[in-house]
Amino acid sequence: MRFVSATPERPETAGEPDIAAPANEPDRPWDSAGPAVGLAVDTLRDAAPPAPRAPGTSVGDDLWATEEVDRETWSPARLVVRARRAAARPNRHAAARARRPRKPRQLRAALAMLVVLALSGTFFAWVTAEPIWLAVGRGDTGTATVAGCVGAGVTQRCRGSFTAEDGRYTTELVRVLGVPGTQTAPGTQVRAQMVNAGSGAAYLDNRTVNTLRWLLGIMLVLLCGLGIVFATGALRLEDRRARRTAAVCGLAAPLLVTVGFLAATY
């Protein structure tokens, strides 16, 4: 008698059935390397950043929200073109930094112009100091007696004496400035102003003329300062701090001389 075992066959020895894919299921993109990679890259590139959620909506509502994205806006080719245009655009600041430094002034020419401009600024500061004091109200009003005049027009020079209005002092042999051509005869008396008894000039009492005197004088002093800056080549220095320091010193030198003459004529 033969006994038949009822024990089922072990799984590892049993034949594994073939699992066939359904006929109606399309090929999945991850089954092939080429299309899957291309589709994934295109999907990431075409993805748009999420739009801000409107107030009063929940997170679940965003799952059902759809937004139409322009494919051309996020196109890799367009992004590359924009990057190339930005790189090719000239940078003004970089060009300014990369410019070649200018050569300094020649020493002889710079020294010659410096001496001329310094002397000119000193002269303008000297003739402007007293009109400035008269413009701010410091001075004495009185009578100037013309003793004689030479020249005519701009080259006219008059001499005379000045007597203060309150009679405190009388100064002889002073320059009388601003005398009209019709009042140049000796002994003619004109109303004038003088800074103090030690001043060497008496100015005709004319507010408009005196204002023009100190205003033009200050402008000429500033022009001399600018001339010193350009003549010495202060703006040609390579270091920015050195350029600023040299320019400020060139502009301040004539002004400091003017301040010195103001203190001397006070």
UniProtKB/TrEMBL annotation:
Residue ranges of the region described as Disordered = 1-63
Q: What are the TM regions of this chain, as residue ranges?
A: 107-127, 214-235, 247-264
Q: Which UniProt keywords apply?
A: Membrane, Transmembrane, Transmembrane helix
Name the domain of life: Bacteria
What protein does this entry describe?
Uncharacterized protein
